[in-house]
Queue: 4 jobs
Job 1
Amino acid sequence: MTMKKAVIIGAGIGGMSAAAVLAQQGMDVTILEKNDKPGGRINFFKEQGFTFDMGPSWYWMPDVFEDFYQKFGHTTSDFYDLQRLDASYQVFFKSDRISLPASYTEYRKLFESIEPGSADRLDKFLAEAEYKYKVGMSEFVWKPGKSLFEFADLKVFKSVLKLQMLSSIKKAVSKVVKDERLRQILEFPVLFLGATPGDTPALYSLMNYADIKLGTWYPQGGMYEIATAFYDIALEQGVKFEFDTPVDKFTYHNQNAIKSALSVDKEFNADIVIANADYHHIDQHVLDPEFRQYDSAYWQSRKMAPSSLLVFLGVDKKIEGLKHHNLFFDADFDGHAYEIYKEPAWPSDPLYYVCSPSVTDPSVAPAGNENLFLLMPTAPDLNSNDEICQSYLDKMIDRMEKHLKLEFKSNIILKKFFCVEDFKAIYNAFKGNAYGLANTLSQTAVLKPSLKSRKISNLYYAGQLTTPGPGLPPSLISGQVAAAEVLKKVYDRVV
């Protein structure tokens, strides 16, 4: 019997996970990647002895990665040395800073020392968050989101109220703490989900469980070690890769099926196509108009999660006082969120994040130097240029120097900006988004762009714009869910 051919568009984490599963089950799989290496948004560059991760920098939910590796006879340690960070991160406020310990016993003591009585309330909050995490993972996240009937069993129905999908995370947090700093710490994990805490369902306190109980980790060598692991697994399964191969067009047969994917002067025949590239780009710019799943009005009405200004700095001295992860919440938390989600504009006084992986990993910077990755969330689709980027970098450094009581601006020997226009150019990102669609109730599960095309019989999607949503673990899951749907269709096989 002739092997079925699958073409995967995009070598991101979703594309490679889908490819590995399909190849393991006997399909002939080729990944077509626009850029020059695997990983998608798990990207990196090297310069002057520095290695900079350009994409995700938080390693949460290690169980999801371990589960994937084990499906192929591996474990995490086969690929990289995974280290739990302690402190998990620290938060700078206007007049002080709080370091969040890895130990939950110490975490409770910290909260209790700041707000007496909060530790017991935190226990209850996290017990509810654990329930949401476990039920969410088992009953919601692994669903393809094609129909409401997927969620129509009694167990799921009974869990809906306990998942608090109709209440906000802001309201849930307000029952735990009154102290403004502790409130911001508990609201932080949803900051990038695409809505203010007041508009984000309390369901997403599951992220607090992932943060506080499952922990914050780091793969020695950098986050790109994850992409390398997935690439190696895919190659082991026989997956073929074509880099520098953007897909420009499809050919069709039978009026409703893709026959092949075209890239410049190359043609790749396909029985199945999984698009791990930007959903909007495939839907609106690669598919012929009659085969598009959605119209322009639909896409324009989508509520997007933020874009970001990223700055990569090489500093020729060590910077005392930084942890691996650092949040600068020394400005108006709610005001910045408003300028992202309510009245989109460049922020007047931004919150921002600083990653200093050289604190943990000496391999990412020359000896005696510091590797800094700065991230400032912005509204999507803003016009950006180097002058704007530099003005915000100056603001961020001035505030850092004030908090750390040291000067390092004159020690910057390498600088690179990455902003809205770069997200569009490198990843074809809709509106230059960095985190996909906002995780609002109206854009959850079956209300997200569909994982399966309703107009093309052999087209599926994976990645952050479809179910289950943005982030590394959800994208990894989306690839496996898409592959499972393909296998049910092609072989009537469940994996």
Job 2
Amino acid sequence: MVLGANQLIETIAFGIPYSYFPRYALSLGASVASIGMFTSSFMLMSAILSPYLGSYSDRFGRKRLTVIGLVGDVILGAATGLVPSWEWLLLVRAMNGAATAAAMVPSEALVVDLAPPDRIGEASGFILACGMVGRNLGPLFGGTIQWFSISYGLSEQASYRVPYFVDAGFAAVSALLITLGIKESRSEYLEKIGGPEDRKRVKIPRAYKILLVCAFATGIGEGFMRPILALFFGDVFGAEPIEIGFLMTLSGFIALLASWLSGRASDRFGRKAVIALGGIPARLLGSAIPLGPNFDVASRFYVARDFMWRIYMVGLRALRADLAPIEIRGRLFGLYRSFFDVGDIIGPVMATYLYDKYRFQTFQVGGFNIPGYGVPFYMNSAIGLTVIAMLLAFVETEKRANRIN
């Protein structure tokens, strides 16, 4: 419950600037073309440092590194609201990516360390659900704070700064929660993971290497959807930003139920069954979105896709927990995050390039007219289905009874 609250608070704080960050960067002198660098720098630092931070958590304990990362979030959150220029903002954002990775990677491993062996899937689903709530509430929360700030007489630029101090306050609350609410005995922890020589003898399982490829493809899938949905629904159906935003928020909350229930199902029926149940329909529904004849039908495809996607994500995270030996769990979770983040960086670039290149074309396939603006959706689904097939064919998991024992 404490780690779930931490995930909720951290993702609310992470999502606070979504609704206005580009305007803040522009007000500090950044160009429109450079806006993408701010997100990329954050994700890149996270991708580079996550394996090292995970290894440190194996050596020194999960709780300690999580709290250090949260304290870093407090300092850098406040610094983001004080920067004098866009160059400083870019530097602080990159550093914040490192601090956030320091807070999140060990806390993900800590969930698995503390959860009962027969309820790891349920715990993973619960944590993912908390994160989804935070991601959905964050932009609304940040936009509301910014609106109240400017309504009470602050300048436009000052109104963009205020929410970051709230962000820093959230991180401070989260650090306090972890410090007081999590018990991690140093002696018990060292007994579980062994010494440095024990960790060196533990190799990365072959099945986990396949899982890293799956994480990369999943990151691409997550990154594909964010920019493309807004472009697609606006260009093809003339949907307004408020309609698109409402659709995304509604979809996120509907998918909450999938996160928790699929975690429990994975404990009972196995990880691969849940991955197949969620992943295959999610990829097929993703391809169906651009084929929808109107906004209502296409949005229903999107909501159904998002629901099945969350089932798939929970199964994948639970499988990650099963395949990562405790001696190097932090390092492996860090590697997983790195592969996912790299995919999440590449995904938006690929998606917008393909969309721009093919959006005005039409392809004849077996007597049917296939719109070119759907190419990113089809490519994303093809990549995802290929990787899911690899995972189902080549990754062996223990029987549930053995895993519990």
Job 3
Amino acid sequence: MKLIYDMVDIEVLAIEGLDDAIIGSTIRNGREVLAYNYDKAVDIIKAAGHSEEYAEEWIAEVSSKEFDGAPAFIYVDNNQEFYGPSSPAGTTVH
């Protein structure tokens, strides 16, 4: 059996300057969009000379816009205490 995969180009909107905060993609309103790590995005905006309050307000404003391809900002919680010290073999936490 021979499997053939066609490469599909998917256009996504990217926010200039936040490339290092991209953690992947997700589906929003039925369309694949870029997913940004919220905390990394805040750090990048702060490193550009803005306050934390400005960064959080800016992200909130972008996140509240409902336009085709609007990116998603994801809160990443790596708190091991919440998930326990280890997971059973063969399991994943999402």
Job 4
Amino acid sequence: MTRVADAPSEPRTVGRDPWPWVGFVSALAFLTLAMLVARNGGLSFDGPLATAVKSLPIPVGVWEAITALGGVILIPISIVFVLAALTTRRFRLALVVAFVLLGATLFTDIVKDQIARPRPVDPLVEAAGYSFPSGHSLNSAATYGLIALVVWRSELPLVVRRIAVILGVTLPFLIGLSRIALGVHYPSDVIGGWLAGIAFVALAATLIRMTGAMARDLPGRVGGSSLSDP
């Protein structure tokens, strides 16, 4: 039988962990952008960036398919993510994932209501609610980014881990562009969503390291393989 071990324990030295700093810088940049949007409304780069994205030779149907990857599909993806952590006896990881992803969703709604920025006029598809930040951008960055983080810290083959990281970066980027191309968000909405999403991934990374959540909470046998903690 194949012996499968958990990911080796990571160094506990916070000073060597870049994630707290990534989270701090991302959160500060988001706060600055949110204050500018609340005070000024439209920002100077919104128009040129929106024009550039909309001029890309990509059919509307493709943008709609991409934007769907950042919509309600994130709910079942998040549920499966949490269940996967539970079934591999990583209960602390499941709690961190659920806490961060639910927090990201609530944060999006709260900030939208506080900023109350109207959406762009004449969108290509319907979209309800306020504009800042882009919920698709924020929640896709948090969800896909967190999946990439966990896979990267796992014992899966290196090629799988690299693919996960590439997808974790590429999908939120394309989803954000799709929101601009479809005319339902300003570029600053999308940038704000990305920044906040990165901050939530950084929070999760810090919590996972602090709690040792990549290790299994209970030893046992899963799928016929012998499991052991580090």
